[in-house]
Amino acid sequence: MLDWTSATQTLKNASQILVVSHVNPDGDAIGSTLAVGSMVQSLGIPVTLVNESPVPEKLSFLPGAENILLPSQVKDRFSVIIAVDAADISRIGNCQQLFADHSVIINIDHHGTNDEFGKINIVKADAAATAEMLYDWAVYLDIPISRSLATVLYAGLLTDTGGFRYSNTSSNVMRIAANLLEQGAESYQLADRLLETISVRYLEQLKTSLATMQITLNGKVAYLVSEEEDNDGLVNFARNIEGVDVGILFRPSDENHIKVSMRSRQIIDVAAVALEMGGGGHARAAGCTINGQMDEVIGAVLEKVKEAFKGVKE
Ligand code: 5GP
Ligand code: MN
Predict the structure, then answer these.
(1) Of 111, 114, 229, 253, which is best to mutate to test ligand 1, by the most ligand atoms within 8 angstroms of its C-beta?
(2) Which of 56, 103, 124, 125 has a CA 20 to 30 Å removed from the CA of 28?
(3) Nearest CA, atom 19, ligand 1
(4) If you take atom 11 of ligand 1, which residue's CA is the nearest one?
């Protein structure tokens, strides 16, 4: 079990808590935000949940998702903040405007690139999801796992392991998942809504985006371009091609920036590549946002990936 002593002490002494996570939240970010919300509430401490981005439509059915506010909807300033699934402070975005002077951040995360931006840092790079760590905290706090807490924790585990398929799917993940199912999480419903169901809009952009796929660097790298924000899983099509180790998705995030998502099978540590370009993540899934136009960004990223392959012993 992780050392939850100081996080627990700070939590229990707080008069109110702010919970934040990363911008453009995924299933683990929202699931973990809701899980901490539910846990803090069951200790009888007032809690506010905030994200810079609205909750994605796909995750809005999760119990309590309607309680996640935009920073502009919150008037209070908070002295104790719990940040979940965020590798560095910039990932929290403008939620920082809600921090009081001299506030204390409890940073709970599973990214190897986490820079320990909190006063209290609980970082476990080999946890599959932040939700996996939070299950541990709930047990430590002796909080009963309600059906809704089980659901949001399961959502984090399910999405960050790609449906219990990625290399982070450990026996511990499976044991926790089994416990969560026993507490009322519904495996089929959650997999159907979070992984299987796609919108017509997503299908349309899948068609357009797959047509942009390029395979390069002797078949070891594949990349594609998407114009849409909702491109969950799209990058896997690149990574999944036989013989490919690194799959990359490029998306313009505004006029001057390209969001880069990288996935690798087993050779390249894409977190290290992303870190060099100002981003971060995990060895097998990482990302960054780069200033520039599409062609130059693609060229620059491919160059970095090529260098990374050079550093690998054949
Ligand atoms: P995605 O490609 O799905 O956006 O992100 C993959 C992984 O990389 C996630 O764990 C995400 O948190 C991390 N990641 C993506 N973009 C960034 C970034 O700009 N900075 C950092 N530190 N991590 C990122
Ligand atoms: Mn995560």
Answers:
(1) 111
(2) 103
(3) 288
(4) 281
Q: Is residue 292's pLDDT more than 90?
A: yes
Q: Up-side HSE of residue 173: CA atoms within 13 Å toward CB?
A: 23
258 lines ligand 1 (CB under 6 A): no
Under a CB-based contact definition with an 8 Å cutoff, are residues 186 and 178 in contact? no
- Long-range contact set of residues 68-73: C-beta below 8 Å, sequence gap at least 24: 68/30, 68/33, 68/34, 71/95, 71/97, 71/98
Mutate which of 124, 261, 277, 297 for ligand 1? The one with the most ligand atoms within 8 Å of its CB, which is 261
Residue 128 Cβ < 6 Å to ligand 1 = no
Q: Residue of the nearest CA to atom 7 in ligand 1?
A: 286
Instruction: Kindly report, as residue ranges, where domains of CATH 3.10.310.30 are found in the chain.
Output: 200-309
The answer, as to whether pTM is greater than 0.90, is yes
Token duo for residue 308 = 């990374």
- Name the residue among 138, 16, 135 with its Cα closest to residue 82: 16
- Where does the chain hold its CATH 3.90.1640.10 domain(s)? 5-196
pLDDT in tens, 144-190: 999 999 999 999 999 999 999 999 999 999 999 999 999 999 999 99
Instruction: Give start and end residues of each alpha helix (H) in the chain.
Output: 5-13, 27-42, 130-140, 147-160, 171-182, 187-191, 200-210, 234-239, 270-276, 294-310
Mean pLDDT of 282-309: 97
Measured from the Cβ of residue 4, the count of other Cβ atoms closer than 10 Å reads 20
Domain 200-309 has CATH 3.90.226.10: no
* 3-class SS of residue 20: strand
Q: How far from 102 is each of 74, 77, 78, 79, CA to CA, in Å?
A: 19, 11, 10, 7
Count of helix runs (H) and strand runs (E) in the chain: 10, 12
Please identify every residue whose CB atom is under 5 Å from ligand 2, which is an ion: 28, 85, 129-130, 160
